[in-house]
Write a structure and sequence with these properties.
The structure is a homodimer. The first copy, chain A, is of the alpha/beta class. Chain A is built from 14 helices and twelve strands. In chain A, strands 2-1-3-4-5-11 form a six-stranded parallel β-sheet, with helices on both faces. The structure holds a DNA duplex.
Chain lengths: 342, 342
DNA sequence: ATCTTTCGTCGAATCGGTTCGACGAAATCA
DNA sequence: TGATTTCGTCGAACCGATTCGACGAAAGAT
């Protein structure tokens, strides 16, 4: 009665041991399962643990075992761009981490390399998952020098010796073109990420563009790549230009979630119906496909799978496995109502 | 030379001490500043720290001092709803936490109360910041029983004894009405969050609605509150209904970031110009105001300020301060191009 | 010149676990 | 039956910090 109400400030392994009539080390072995324990003792200990509401002290555990059960996740928290996708990555990483009995420490990209150094060498986390690595990212050399496992979400241009997980954006670009070409479109435009993204050297943009261009050449269709800033005017004037210079464009590939609503709204406004006059393929999370005037044909950005896979690889290398393989997930096209025969 | 390249697996305070020719405790005092240290010793120690790249072991530190310098942040990671706003909160909390020399452990709402219990009693974090608390939230009693500071982002309906930070949504609703009424609009509709939000008892929705309704009554204007699901058809048919039943509506308050593009696109499509025919006030982060066909008059959701304030309150109560005050931030209206005289 | 304070530093205890070697009892083998 | 292995448990060392009491030296008071 009294005890339940009191602040049992911190239940230690010693109290559990005493309450179960065994030694602290035995309790530890019951929890970790690293030595065989008699069924009777096991039951006794587990009961005490439950009854006292025992949770091992994370710090003590980290100190003794050099394992924190924490993964550091480094995300780009520019609040303007990409939000939905980033959020989805974060969500899936946290969920996957919990499934593997780990917690997630959140770091932002703009703290720079120093923060990673700090987290790694103060043993705040066992491993790092890093999003949005740019070409020539100053963090890469540091990550390589770290004594902890690192997994990248989003592959940098050149293999850097770190394991990566990402959508195969090159293939994704090709799939978009193939789909539209199959439908008879002979002139296809790409509404890509903002120039800033290209400039930063975030590789997915370049890879997608290459896949797009190469596939178009291979299929003998005209490719019109554009970059597009994240504002309504940019979209509007961009489309003005596009249709003025290339009136034959009937297919649009939008690789920029942020401008999707604007593109659709603007198309409608200028009297081009989707899909009767223009076919649109969007590269975005599937969850975004349905909430538009017309359900969008998409190549999905599988944030969930990528996040889960990243965690899995991380945990595996914590388990001692090595190997810096890069895993690119095959793109998945879902045909909905925004594409039709030319 | 050699040393720099080697994996100096873990630099300890002892090595720093030896390298500086002092006792470990002295190093500790240099770092914490809890005892006076001679300038000479201080310099010596700080040099060694820098030279060796010393970072105190977080676990050891937590064990010895019962302070982790980690804040747990509990967020709703439904990936469908609210994403942008949630993201902004997260970003600002992380930034503010770092400014106070703390790190952030990310937990998701759907792990439930047990996860909070776990994090608190395993000393993974010093304090909790909890977003999206619902009325009758099962987590509240548990949080109250916790021996650690807790701050809520978003105030629940009834004061629950926990400190809260939030936008004053009641006042926000009133401000929207006042602005439109000042412009001469006599019939104003509210496009609110989805019914699911109301059902969950997330209080901001109800508070905003109350502010909206009360202010309308006080000003003698007609108020037409609507809830709106997060899909294009819902928006479209919702506006159909609205204008059919209330053809006199000339002012629209949109308290639902997710449907903003849809609302604007649909209005345009049905030939109602903004702001000539309909005035629109949006309740959303300021960063969202500009990227629409027409720059939106908004009442800002000050995620940055709220997040920063939450962290500040948390850190303060870690410092021993008590007091469970609720702080509601005054709404700020920014007039842009989407509102005009009726 | 002596007696207090103050200052700067040190050594040792402590935090709460994990893990290794040891050891008695039970089980297996010869 | 005695020798050997296996099983289950314990005690103690250790992980890397913080923090408190002690203590010599320098500074100030009388």
């Amino acid at each position: 009665m009294r005890f339940d109400d009191e602040e049992h400030a911190m239940v230690t392994i010693h109290e559990v041991a005493r309450s179960a009539g065994v030694a602290p080390s035995t309790v530890s072995y019951v929890i970790s399962g690293k030595r065989s324990i008699s069924p009777k003792t096991k039951r006794l200990v587990e009961e005490s643990i439950r009854r006292l509401g025992y949770h091992p002290h994370a710090g003590a555990r980290a100190l003794a075992s050099s394992k924190t059960s924490v993964l550091a996740l480094v995300v780009p928290l520019r609040t303007d761009l990409n939000v939905a996708v980033v959020m989805q990555f974060v969500a899936s990483v946290v969920k996957a981490a919990r499934d593997h009995d780990h917690d997630v420490l959140l770091l932002t990209k703009d703290e720079g390399p120093a923060a990673l150094q700090r987290v790694a060498s103060s043993a705040l986390a066992d491993a790092l998952i890093v999003m949005d690595v740019e070409s020539d990212d100053p963090r890469v050399p540091m990550l390589l020098a770290l004594d902890r496992p690192v997994v990248l979400i989003g592959a940098p241009d050149s293999p850097c010796g770190l394991p990566c997980v990402d959508l195969d954006f090159t293939a994704a670009g090709a799939v978009c073109v193939a789909h539209l070409a199959d439908l008879g479109h002979r002139s296809i435009a790409l509404v890509g990420p903002s120039p800033a993204v290209y400039r930063r050297g975030t590789s997915y943009a370049a890879r997608f563009l290459r896949g797009f261009t190469d596939a178009a050449r291979a299929r003998g269709v005209k490719a019109v790549p554009r970059s597009c800033r994240h504002s309504y005017e940019a979209v509007s004037s961009g489309l003005d230009d596009l249709f003025a210079q290339h009136p034959d464009v009937t297919g649009l590939v939008v690789h920029n979630e942020a401008v999707l609503p604007a593109v659709l709204s603007d198309l409608r406004h200028r009297g081009r119906r989707v899909p009767q006059d223009v076919s649109v393929v969007a590269v975005c999370p599937d969850s975004m496909a349905e909430n538009h005037p017309v359900a969008l044909t998409t190549v999905a950005i599988p944030a969930d799978e990528v996040g889960a896979l990243a965690v899995e690889m991380t945990v595996r290398s914590l388990g001692g496995h090595t190997g810096a393989e890069t895993r690119l997930l095959a793109p998945r096209l879902t045909v909905r109502d925004s594409t039709a025969r030319a």
